Amino acid sequence: NFILAIESSCDDTSAAVLCNKKVLSNVVATQEIHQKYGGVVPELASRAHQQNIVPVVHQALAQANIDKKQLSAIAFTRGPGLMGSLLVGASFAKSLSLGLAIPLIEVNHMQAHILAHFIEDREQESPDFPFLAMTISGGHTQIVLVKSYFEMEIIGETLDDAVGEAFDKSAKLLGLPYPGGPLIDKYAKLGNEKAFEFPKPKVDGLNFSFSGLKTSILYFIQKKTKENSEFVTENLADICASIQFTILEILMDKLKLAVKQTGVKRIAIGGGVAANSGIRSRLANAEEEFGWKTYIPKFEYCTDNAAMIGIVGHFKFLEKDFAEQNIAAKARYKLSS
Ligand code: ATP
Ligand code: FE
């Protein structure tokens, strides 16, 4: 089968074409406009999606070298995400499915971040069931027990900020541009992760909290800057390394607890923060250190992309799990089985 997939939940407009589990094309138009504002502006995001969606879909079809008449179905992100952004993708997908008279498939974005591991690619291996998925992104932080393609149970999640937000807000305090996560990662490589110490939150069980970390970094910077106005510039690499170290400790502690509680040692990560080099090397080391088997998706399938929507579309297509034309986008769309 040939599935056209559309992703427009946040600030990336993406379209992909899959043939079964293989990606024929995966085009992503990242909206640069938000950098100026230090964060995603919802109104501007939906306008940019409106401008990008047709050219991005054309490009995806052209790169896949197929005609739209060959498509078997259209999959789109129903939620969670920004309502104005979701509406653009949902309306486009509905119209095209009607125009071509082919089935429409709705996809949960968080399920897609997890099933991205099943995209067939020489550079990545798929986990066996059951496995633990840790989805770490700009809007979410979850540990999910994945029993099959469609049976997923959230066993831990953040009570406040997402881990990507913790990276981005910390970066903002350091005067770095948005999104600051990749920059913290970059500077952290040059610094000493033990230079400064930040407190880890005390949250029972498998849930996370990141808002306290941001506050303690703010106080730390205010105090140090009073003593030396050049403190941040002179110590940027050490500060970034120490922040990243604290965040990674929090993530790894919860993963260890999740393994202990479930007995499942297959760990798959996903979401934009899975691009972080620190978490990648921690997980790679955990294979030897704790006997885990770890799965890290290819970089382009970590951040928001339509290929991951397409793989969910593929599995739903096989089940004939199609959506009606009156389906509505959902800004809050809980992952459940
Ligand atoms: P969601 O998937 O929850 O809707 P989103 O679409 O904003 O959220 P993604 O595109 O999956 O999230 O991820 C973006 C986040 O990943 C940003 O917060 C960004 O800073 C972070 N990020 C990307 N690369 C890195 C990196 N190398 N190190 C740390 N954080 C990173
Ligand atoms: Fe995402």
Structural summary, described in words:
The model has no long low-confidence stretch (mean pLDDT 96). The chain has a 5-stranded mixed sheet, with helices on both faces. Strands 8-7-6-9-10 form a 5-stranded mixed sheet, sandwiched between helices. The protein is of the alpha/beta class and 337 residues long. Strand 2 and strand 3 form a beta hairpin. Helix 3 packs across helix 9 and helix 4 packs across helix 5. Bound molecules: adenosine-5'-triphosphate (ATP) and fe (iii) ion.
How do you describe this structure in short?
The chain is of the alpha/beta class and 337 residues long.
Spatial ordering of strands, largest sheet: 3-2-1-4-5
In terms of structural class, how would the helical and strand content be classed?
alpha/beta
Bound ligands, each once = adenosine-5'-triphosphate, fe (iii) ion
How far the N terminus sits from the C terminus, by CA atoms, comes to 25 Å
> Percent of residues in beta strands?
15-25%
Treating each run of at least 4 consecutive H or I residues as one helix, how many helices? Answer: 9
Helix content: 40-55%
The chain-level mean pLDDT equals 96
Oligomer: single chain
- The SSE string, one letter per element, is EEEHEHEHEEEHHHHEHEH
Largest sheet: 5 strands, mixed
- DSSP strand tally: 10
| Shape summary | globular
Keywords: Acyltransferase, Cytoplasm, Iron, Metal-binding, Transferase, tRNA processing
GO molecular function: tRNA N(6)-L-threonylcarbamoyladenine synthase activity
Enzyme class: transferase
Protein name: tRNA N6-adenosine threonylcarbamoyltransferase
